[in-house]
Amino acid sequence: MRSLNLNSLIKTEHVHRPLLFHGVLWTLAFGILIFIFSKGKIPEFIDVLYTLSFLVLIAVPVCINFYVLIPRFLKKEMYVAYFIGFLLNAVVFGAFIYFFFEPLLNIFFPSYFFISYLTSNTLIIVISIFLVSTTLLKLGEDWFYFNSSQSKLLKMKSLQFETQLSALRAQINPHFLFNSLNVIYALALDKRENITKAIVELSDILRYVIYDSSSDGVTLKEEVALIKNYIAFQQHRISTKQPTELDISITNESFKIYPMLLLPLLENSYKHGTISGEDTAPIEIRLHQEDNRFFFQISNPILNAKNTIDDKYSGVGLDNLKHNLELVYPNAYRLQVETKDGRFIVTLILEHELK
């Protein structure tokens, strides 16, 4: 099953819109500076020229800060280098504005007589405030787009998660139903009297598979009932003097696990560990739960047994189990498959209850 390619749908880096960003920034800056330079009075044309010219010059250190210092140093957590670069940027262009701003105005606008609105101290304060405030504004824009993209990414991951789980359930349910119908078919061929009881047991199992497995989690009480029903149902298919050994120890029957985790393991054990009509070693099942930990182990003799299920369905259950565990219990489970003393043993440990 192919997973969604989230990288092709969402980029975690924010999309900087320079026209919108700078349009808002310099409009606000012009409004604030024209108010300062005209000292709160109705601005004259010469005030507008002075403010626009000042903004043109100060735009240079601001853009250097935006597109050089912030991405190369601040965002890479090179704070000392950024602080030094920030100071050099402010001092160099502050000195340039202080010494050359008015001469440049006189060259470009010789018909106007400009009086400096800024003393040396005021100029330092204005440039410092301007660079600091624009830095905060840029970081604010980055934060906004980052959170927006992260929110979209989380939604897409949730959608991917649900899509994958739904697909896995869709594979498990027909697989189990196919196996079960083969058991009923075999009973019908032999005209066994207990076929009615088997159908009732199968209906209880299918009720779990169809309805309970669609929920986010099932209790251990429900899961144990499924296991016992499944064992009883399988007894109709096989005739053995060695019944399945079931060791259950649960401190909290309301403890929740993800649905359909254990059924594939039961299926595989009965498929490969039993031969109808032969006296074989029993299947052994241990299910323990204490505090926030869940332990399940199932083992069967290695018989190289084959049943009537088509071999192309072999392994579907275990593959789906691994997919489910990766999705629902990432880094919080252990699945061990081993052979020991002529037995095939699968151990599943869950480190926490499903929330």
Question: What features would you highlight for this structure?
Answer:
355 residues; alpha+beta; Heat Shock Protein 90; 2 domains; 5-stranded mixed sheet; two-stranded antiparallel ribbon; 8 helices; 7 strands; 12% strand; disordered N terminus
Structural summary, described in words:
- The protein has eight helices and seven strands.
- Helix 1 crosses helix 2, helix 2 crosses helix 4 and helix 4 runs antiparallel to helix 8.
- 21% of the residues are buried.
- A five-stranded mixed β-sheet has the order 2-4-5-7-6, covered by helices on one side. It has a two-stranded antiparallel sheet with strand order 1-3.
- It has two domains: 150 residues, no CATH class; 159 residues, Heat Shock Protein 90 (2-Layer Sandwich), CATH 3.30.565.
- A hairpin with a 2-residue loop joins strand 6 and strand 7.
- The radius of gyration is 36 Å and the shape is rod-shaped.
- It has 355 residues and is an alpha+beta fold.
- The longest helix has 71 residues.
- The N terminus is likely disordered.
Topology:
Blueprint: H1 18-37, H2 45-74, H3 79-108, H4 120-190, H5 195-210, E1 218-219, H6 220-235, E2 245-250, E3 256-257, H7 263-273, E4 284-290, E5 293-301, H8 316-328, E6 333-340, E7 343-350
Parallel strand pairs: 2-4
Antiparallel strand pairs: 1-3, 4-5, 5-7, 6-7
Name the strands of the widest sheet in spatial order: 2-4-5-7-6
* Morphology: rod-shaped
Number of domains: 2
The CATH architecture term of the largest domain is 2-Layer Sandwich
Alpha-carbon Rg, integer: 36 Å
CATH superfamily of the largest domain: Histidine kinase-like ATPase, C-terminal domain
End-to-end gap: 26 Å
Structural class by secondary-structure content: alpha+beta
According to DSSP, the number of beta strands is 7
Residue runs with pLDDT of under 50 for 5 or more positions? 1-14, 307-315
Chain-averaged pLDDT:
77
Characterize the quaternary organization of these chains: single chain
Give the biggest beta sheet. 5 strands, mixed
